Amino acid sequence: MATFMDVHSGMTGITEEQLKEAHAADLAIEGDEGVHFEHAWMDPKSGKVFCLSTGPDREAVMRVHERAGHPTSEVYEVPIEV
Amino acid sequence: MATFMDVHSGMTGITEEQLKEAHAADLAIEGDEGVHFEHAWMDPKSGKVFCLSTGPDREAVMRVHERAGHPTSEVYEVPIEV
């Protein structure tokens, strides 16, 4: 199991409610891929969303986000943390 | 007090020890700016580092990173999280 940070861009103006809905959409299907989305942080001004997850590989994280309707190719494996 | 996620790029090949040193350099001076760096995640392959912090504003976060020797202009205020 590895840890990932992924980045979504261009989600300018997204509300807290919409972020919760997007996160819930991930949670609803993440089990299919052995992924778990732990946390998400959002800057509505710039439209950036950062998601922290665990899972088997980058591709699995990408598949969950894509199926949930908010694809991103910017998924980084982050094996080192402090 | 606000929450921030910042992104460093181009730190390819950085080791866990170097990340710890960089984080310690932030912690040593962050109090001057009322900032606290909570956590950092690193992808040594792509050279991306993500730092989660709290502080008064973006500029304070940028000043700490700059004085600690690893400046970035990519600092996002993340008022919404799930």
UniProtKB/TrEMBL annotation, chains A, B:
Domain of life: Bacteria
Stored InterPro entries: SCO4226 (IPR042557), SCO4226-like (IPR025336)
Pfam families found in the cross-reference section: SCO4226-like
Database matches in NCBIfam families: Ni_bind_SCO4226
Name assigned to this protein: SCO4226 family nickel-binding protein
